[in-house]
Amino acid sequence: MFSERIVKSLAGGSAIRAMFEQGNILKAKYGEDNVYDFALGNPDPEPPETVIDDIRALAGKPGIHKYMPNAGFENVRSSIAEQLCAGSGVPYTKDSILMVAGAAAGLCIVMEALLDPGDEVIVIAPFFGEYRPYVTNFGGKIVPVPALAGTFEPDVPAIERAVTGKTKAIIINSPNNPSGAVYSEEVLRRLADALDSAEKRTGNTVYVVSDEPYSKIVYDGVRVPCADAIFKNSIIVNSFSKSLALPGERIGYAAVNPRIENADVLMDAMIYCARTLGFVNAPGIFQEIAARHMDDAAGLDAYRARRDALYGILIDAGYECTLPKGAFYLFPGSPVEDDVEFCKKALEHNIVAVGGTSFGYPGYFRLAYCVSMKTIRDSAPAFRSLMEEIREKKRKNP
Amino acid sequence: MFSERIVKSLAGGSAIRAMFEQGNILKAKYGEDNVYDFALGNPDPEPPETVIDDIRALAGKPGIHKYMPNAGFENVRSSIAEQLCAGSGVPYTKDSILMVAGAAAGLCIVMEALLDPGDEVIVIAPFFGEYRPYVTNFGGKIVPVPALAGTFEPDVPAIERAVTGKTKAIIINSPNNPSGAVYSEEVLRRLADALDSAEKRTGNTVYVVSDEPYSKIVYDGVRVPCADAIFKNSIIVNSFSKSLALPGERIGYAAVNPRIENADVLMDAMIYCARTLGFVNAPGIFQEIAARHMDDAAGLDAYRARRDALYGILIDAGYECTLPKGAFYLFPGSPVEDDVEFCKKALEHNIVAVGGTSFGYPGYFRLAYCVSMKTIRDSAPAFRSLMEEIREKKRKNP
Fold it and tell me: Is the pLDDT of residue B15 over 80?
């Protein structure tokens, strides 16, 4: 009676959101303080005071709440183009920038503007599971290529082999959700060369869609290389959800590399898609906030302290884990082969985690550490008892 | 190289947006004050002071900018359900309400949740042209049924005849864009009976999607009948763009009638679509604004004065026009048969209007009178000289 296609999809809902719901059930049963919920990448700091002050100041600005061109306010797009250009040297103008209602909106818009039915989009596993509908919505097909174990960096030769005559794009996401890996400039340059070779082989352009919502969330002096300076055919999709801690407000941008052939047609196509997919435009007041706070990073020091604390707890309890350089996720190896089974067992210890299988990378699990330091510290005995139980079971059934 | 489907669509872009661009070109040439731009339904008042005060007060509310459930904040959904229920008597609960990023988002989400490829959606012409992509995005087909000339009320017997085994939904939009018609309760009850008969004939449910962004913009003591009280299988889609004069902020809701069979499955489907279409959730701060300002109507008295002034100017100049009871549009008859040609001629007199053809109703043109009273008054000589030129031409070539 309703859409058969959609009703069928309901069964395979988001594993992240499902674990988030599981966490809420546990909290209702055992109390908020007794559940260690690492399911959702929902930044726990509030937005910076300067952002809140600016919202208050902008609320009464004449015209800010009205329709503007579908692409966004011109002054905002000019400002973002200038700031991006200052960072990467790519000659963006306001006509390169589309303001979007968050990275999810940006990715859907870019995918619709690029894809015809049957086109393939390469993703590097582990990857954010929602990439799947963002691509299949428009008849595209996801082609996952596993990252290298341990570093979670792209497996460049494997990606080159995965490019076919149907490949329209590759999504890269660094700092990565869920692994926290920050891809080095060296590996991205090798990837650029590999894509060049593949394009010569197939005769088709492979667009690089760089999904960068964690670009400001990096540690230990690491710099995120500018993907747009490395890949000529790049479209940057970014969001302020994480850097300004306002994921509920839905604000971001898409930047089309002006070196793309017919970049103006691509931008026209993206504006058309933004309009007809029902976005119309990105929220007005937050467009201005975005331009004014491009380089802020709310809660960065707190995130680093939490990363270190949770990493220490895991290592002490005997988990295998790479210390990530970015984002706010740890991606340890699952102590039992089936990560979904492991996450079920973790729930019995009031730990809420998401299995690597949902990120196309089985055998691992994701912990979002954008939670209070108290939750992290209090979780230590639970991680220990969980590991002990697993070891005990292995001893009994070797 | 980009999506062929989308690049092909670019040629047939939005006529409203195209005329809006034409207006901007004329303004650059002749000065803002010398162009009478009635192209875009962009409310000219600012939001009510109480709304701006609430934005300022809410900006610092802990948690308001974070991710919330995809359907929206629970307190907001409860409040909207209660307020809707008080108006219509329909027993909505928070689980009936999905907060959406404006009516465009709401319509896309509802259409995806309802439609399988090949399904038909009846619309009553004249209709907002963007309904077309909102339906075709998901493989659906628009079936326009012309309204009755003069009143622009639905032609009920024609609608009943248009229902086939493939009909999944009908979109009604009252107060109507572009005609300003407010459908009477009597005609809606006849429509409900006709849909009942048609459903018995075909064996399928026809969902009534009531797109109500102008529900608060009504004049002369007219009341908009509650579509949800009349149609059991109704989904209300509403927006605060017009009533609170903040179209750039993208906030609205979709309300699923709890009397729909398996209403909970439909809501789950809509939440899934909201997530996977890239909306994720409606902007957080404006969700709270929506709940607090359900019944406000910014600028209503000013709109009525403008309607009366522009209507008077048109009648004096010899145009044929029905005085509309709602929305902020006039929809006069085109003095020449081809309304697109008429709008081109109007541009020569610095009048920017949109032809009825873009609304599936040739022979008319739309004037959005949400502009300053000065623009309306100053436009009088232009409307007169335009009519004189047309009459002169008809005299010469009868």
Answer: no
Of A5, A9, A112, the CB nearest to B6: A112
For range A315-342, the mean pLDDT? 97
Cβ distance of A248 and B284 shorter than 8 Å: yes
Distance from CA of B67 to the nearest CA of A (A): 5
Probe site for chain B from A52, A64, A67, A266 (most B CB atoms < 10 A):
A67
Question: Which architecture, in CATH terms, is B4-47+298-391?
Answer: Alpha-Beta Complex (3.90)
Q: What is the pTM of this model?
A: 0.96
Give bridge partners of residue A254 from the DSSP assignment: A98, A237
Report whether B335 contacts B342 (CB < 8 A).
yes
Residue A281: name the closest of B360, B250, B27, B126 by CA: B250
Q: From the CA of B35, how many Å to the nearest CA of chain A?
A: 19
Q: How far is it, in rounded angstroms, from Cα A37 to Cα A130?
A: 21
Chain A and chain B share a number of CB contacts under 8 A equal to 213
Helix (H) or strand (E) holding A322: none
- The answer to whether the Cβ–Cβ distance between B46 and A65 falls below 8 Å is yes
Map residue A97 onto helix, strand or coil. Answer: strand
Q: Identify the residue whose tokens are 């934005």.
A: B55
B218 DSSP assignment: B
Selecting from 3.30.70.870, 3.40.309.10, 3.40.640.10, 3.90.1150.10, what CATH number does the domain B62-292 have? 3.40.640.10
A3: nearest CB among B52, B114, B137? B114
* From-to residues of CATH 3.90.1150.10 in chain B: 4-47+298-391
Q: Name the residue among A6, A47, A275 with its Cβ closest to that of B269.
A: A6
Please tell me the distance in Å from B5's CA to the nearest CA on chain A. 7
ipTM over 0.85: yes
What confidence tier does B220 reach under pLDDT thresholds 50, 70, 90? Answer: very high
Stretch (H or E) spanning B269:
helix B263-276
Instruction: Give the one of B113, B114, B278 whose C-beta lies nearest to A134's C-beta.
Output: B278
Residues of chain A with Cβ-Cβ distance to B133 below 8 Å are 276
Share of chain B above pLDDT 90, in %: 93
Long-range contacts of A54-61 (CB under 8 A, 24+ apart): A54/A288, A54/A289, A54/A292, A54/A293, A55/A285, A55/A289, A55/B55, A55/B56, A55/B59, A55/B285, A56/B55, A56/B56, A56/B59, A58/A285, A58/A288, A58/A289, A59/A285, A59/B52, A59/B55, A59/B56, A59/B59, A60/B46, A60/B52, A61/A288
